[in-house]
Amino acid sequence: MTAVWITIAGLAIANAAIKASGPVALGGRELPRAAIDVIALLAPALLAALVLTETFTTPDGDLTIDARAVGLAAAAGAVLVRAPLLVTILAAAAATAAARALG
Question: What is the pTM of this model?
Fold first, then answer.
């Protein structure tokens, strides 16, 4: 077994243990409303952080403004005018492609 597969197996076991710890620790009790509200905000916050990190950083970790930022701005504009998701994606792709073609 290679080191890669040992790492994958270890991560799978750790993931299962982490997921099982919640029901084991709480038993059948309900979470407080404040905890549920915070948990509901985690996914959008994480998604926003990932989008911004991928848009404004280089593989070296440096800050950059390039065609990806133009696409993000176009997507944000489409969201502001409440465009459908497909239109938003197409606007972002078209703006990014145009910025790369012109720049």
Answer: 0.62
